[in-house]
Amino acid sequence: MTDQFRLDGKTALITGATGSMGSEFSRTLSAAGADVILASRTVETLEKLAAEINGETGGRASILPCDLSDAAQAAGLAERALALADIDVVLHNGITAHDSASLLDTPDHQWSAAFDLIVWGCLALCKGLVPSMMERGRGSIITVVSSTGINPTPGYAAYGMAKGSLLLLTKYMAKEWGPSGIRANCLNPGGIARPGEEEHMQEMTKKTGVADRISMRRVGLQHEVMGTAVFLASDASSYISGQVINIDGGRI
């Protein structure tokens, strides 16, 4: 039964692979048995993470530097990835830096940056990979969304609207590509602290009253997101598609 959760023989392409959450996704999918292809902008950080995975854990990691906010590069990433292996899993974790601003004050470039990377980059990449998945009759697409894309959060309009659009895009992919055996689901981490920031974030949730809305009354840790990513990438979730999986401690 536990073999269903293994990713041996699968290849996973991870975008935003070298960020704090992205690097954990990369390490975790590799540890579960997948060959991983790491994509992000900076060659040096990609090389460092790949060396760690290949050396310390005995995994198999390749790197493909790419600026996913450039649609041509995103489409090219699909072609370059397929030149390395058949892609079984796509985990889209690409994010963009954003400044807190209201709807009226958000500059045009911030809207473009958010949508180009989070939405259009994902679509261009998946359009390039899906024909191969269709030929093989299988594939899992996992997108990392945000609570700001579900519940409006002042100051996060551009980021939240892009994440909300990504959520809907994922459901469209599930609907249209499901008959070909392709699944698409969203991971929605809520209130997840980066390593070393747990105490500070926990204190902030108490001060702002957010903790009162979390059933477990604490912030989450990055490793608590990883099991769900493995589950959605694996055959254990073979009949799950078009869903948003909330990892938020029961925020009600």
Low-confidence stretches: none
Sheet of most strands? 7 strands, parallel
What is the count of DSSP helices, taking H or I runs of 4+ residues? 7
- The CATH class, by name, is Alpha Beta
The overall average pLDDT, rounded, is 91
**What is the spatial order of strands in the main beta sheet?**
3-2-1-4-5-6-9
Number of distinct beta strands: 9
**CATH fold label:** Rossmann fold
Q: What's the helix-strand series? A: EHEHEHEHEHEEHEHE
What is the topological layout?
Layout: E1 11-15, H1 20-31, E2 35-39, H2 43-56, E3 61-63, H3 71-84, E4 89-92, H4 108-136, E5 139-144, H5 157-177, E6 182-189, E7 192-193, H6 198-208, E8 220-221, H7 223-233, E9 244-247
Parallel strand pairs: 1-2, 1-4, 2-3, 4-5, 5-6, 6-9, 7-8
Structure description:
By secondary structure, the protein is an alpha/beta fold. It has a single domain (2-246), classed as NAD(P)-binding Rossmann-like Domain (Rossmann fold, 3-Layer(aba) Sandwich). It is built from seven helices and nine strands; from the N terminus they run βαβαβαβαβαββαβαβ. The protein has helices at residues 20-31, 43-56, 71-84, 108-136, 157-177, 198-208, 223-233, and strands at residues 11-15, 35-39, 61-63, 89-92, 139-144, 182-189, 192-193, 220-221, 244-247. The strands form two sheets. It has a seven-stranded parallel sheet with strand order 3-2-1-4-5-6-9, with helices on both faces. A two-stranded parallel sheet has the order 7-8. β1 (11-15), α1 and β2 form a beta-alpha-beta unit. α1 packs across α7. The longest helix is centred in the middle third of the chain and has 29 residues, at 108-136. The chain is globular. The model has no long low-confidence stretch (mean pLDDT 91).
